[in-house]
Here is the input.
Amino acid sequence: MSRSTVWTLLADELLREPEWEQLKLDVDRCVDLHNEIVRLGWEGSGRDYQDFVPTHWKDDSEEARKTLNPDLMSFLQRADYSPEHSFHFWASGLFNLENMFFWDSLFQHKIEEEKRFVNLYHATSIWSHQVGIVYDQVTNAAIMCTYIDDIGWITNGRIGWYPLESILEAWLDMIKSGKVKAIRENEDSELMTFPPWALVPYTEQDLQETLDAFDNLIEAIQDRMPGALPDQSTVQHGLVDEHDLDEANILDGFARKFLLRARRPHFEYIAPGLKTINSEKFARSEFMQVFRKHDYVYHDEDIDVPPIPVFISDVDCKDPVPQTKFHDRNFQYPYNLVERYSAGLYLEAVSFSLSRWDDQTIFVLPYGIGSRRHARKSDGSLYGENPHDDTPIAKDTTADLYQAGHRPFGDRHGPQLVQILQHWLMMVENGHWMVGAEGVEGGIDEWKKADRRGTWELYVLPQSV
Here is the structure.
C-alpha cells in the first residue's frame, strides 16, 4: 500500500500481511551489531575488552521454546550483555522471558494474537511507563515503542515496522557519529546519562554539516538569480550580532553558534515566503520578549534557550491564548501564551536538563493544511490524525510540516535543521522552486502544495533516528 492510501481496514487486517514483513530474522547480522554496541560501550567506559566476560540469555525452558520462534531464541542466546551497564542510551538491555510479555494484554487489545509481540529490549528510564524495542514474531519486524501509550499507535496497521538489524544499525550509527557516546565511570559530565552512554545535544560535525548545507543552499540560489553574482570578497558571516545574543541571554550551544557562524545571504528569500533572521528581527521576536520577561521565574519548566526564529515570514500566526499552561500549542509553556508571532522555521526551545536535540526545528505556517488528506508525516500518518484510531481523520494543522510522527528507532524529536536545509537545496536544484531577483519565489502560499495531489511527496522527509 502507498502512503496515500485511504485507510479503511482495521488494524488486525492490516497487520496480517503488511508490506514490511520479513521472511526471517537475520540472526548473524543482529548478533554482530548487538555485540559491537556492547563492545563500544565497554571500551568507551575505559575498560579493556579482553577483560569483558559476557553474560548470555540462557533460558532454554519448554516455555521459552513454546513462546519464542527459533531464530529469536538463537539471537538471544548469542547476544552478549553486561549487567554492569546499559546496552544503549535508549535501551538498558534485553528482557528476560518473565517480562517479555508484560504488556501482552495491551497488544491483544488491538491484535487478538497471544504472545505475538515480544518486548525485546527494555527502554531506559528516560520515560515513565516505558516499553522499548518490540519484536513481531509473525512479520519478523521490530519497532521502538517509548511509552505504553504508544502501543495503540504502533499497532494501528499504518505505522511501518523495520528489520531488527535496521534499528541496531541506526543505534550503532549514532555512536559512530558521536550523537551517543560512552563516558568513563569517573568522568564529570553534565549530559544525561545511562552509564556508560550519554546523549550529546549536538556535535561539531552536526554544526559544520548544517553550516555547509546553508552555504550550499545560498550558492544554489545565487547561481540561479538573474544578473551578476555577488563579489565573493563581500561574503559576511553572522546572522545575529553577538551583542544581541548576549542581551537576550542565549547561552552557548547550537543555536548561538549557528547564528554567529552562518553565512549572511545577499538576497531576501531563502525559501518560499521566508527571510533569514537578522539582529533587528531577532530582537523583536515575541519569544525573546517572553524569555526575558519570565527570566527563569518558572523553575519547574527549566527552559534554558527559547524558541529561536531562523527563517521567518512577514505573515504572522494568530493563536488564541490557551487557558492553562498545559494546553496543547505549537510551543511549550510559557511560549504557548503568545497570541501572535511570525510564521516560519524555529529552532525549538531547549532544556539543558532533559534529553536533547539542540538542532531540532518546528515549522509553523500562518494557515492550516492537511484536511485534503494528501499531506503526510515521515511515518506516513495524516496531519492531525489520532494515531490510535482504526480509520484516521485528517485535520488542518499549522505545525506538522516536515514532522516525523512516530520515530521507529528512538525518542520523539523535531527534524534537524540540517535535514531541512538539505531538503530545500534539493527543491532548488531540482527546479521544484523557482528563483528570481529576490531569491526563492512562490510566497508563503507555496507551502500549501504539501497537501495537494502530485506535490505532497516533495514535502515529506525520510525517516531517521
The CA atoms of residues 107 and 113 lie 8 Å apart.
